What does this fold into?
Amino acid sequence: MLQAEVAGLRVIVTAGGAGIGRAMVESFAAQGAQVFTCDIDGAALEELGRACPQVGREIADVANPDAVAALFDAALGRLGGLDVLINNAGIAGPTAPVEEIAPEDWRRTQAVNLDGLFHCLQQGVPALKAAGGGCIVNLSSAAGVRGYPLRTAYVASKWAVVGITKSLAMELGRFGIRVNALCPGPVEGERIDRVIAAKAAARGIPEAEMRAIMTQDTSLKSFVTAQDIADMALYLASPSGARLSGQALSIDGNIEVLR
It folds into this structure.
């Protein structure tokens, strides 16, 4: 784990019950940050509470602006302010040719990945301004900087995240707020397993073949881990990342093509 100077920082991580979010929550907490997180999965939050009892937790669907408002009321009340906002919540969305995507699946993907980001920014930015500055980390994707067939709903949302990141870096820089996006490639875990299964089914090939294709499409011939992403978030939140803003940082083993 990266050793970063984040002790005492007040941090909100959305969707921290599992996967990348869980790795971020545990990493910041382990290094002395004050952390509050949310998730739509109450069981995951309960398990996190047993592992990290010092972390504040709230069930919330970021697509619901009222739930986000309640989340930030609880988080800011506990933390006493905000230094770092990590917008991690997101869903994979449908895997299908564009003409077969159900409108409700398209809308849900944008509601979580894009509207949810917006709701959290509206609540979090005033708190960061009040603190005299801070750090925002938005989770985009390798699919946020390149095309990805059969994943248009997800791609649309993640390209938007990069655009929002770059715009807010310009808008908020004068307040001492740095804004960056992380663009992971395939991350080992249940979520990418589901994507692989869906892509394999859409192409009519075995899942093992689909995984091999995706692995070979990276220069390092490997997927990344949730801890790889958490380590970059730690770096951005620390003094070492104090001059980084407006960047879409790829953590993907150098993906050469998405297919």
Observations:
- The mean pLDDT is 95.
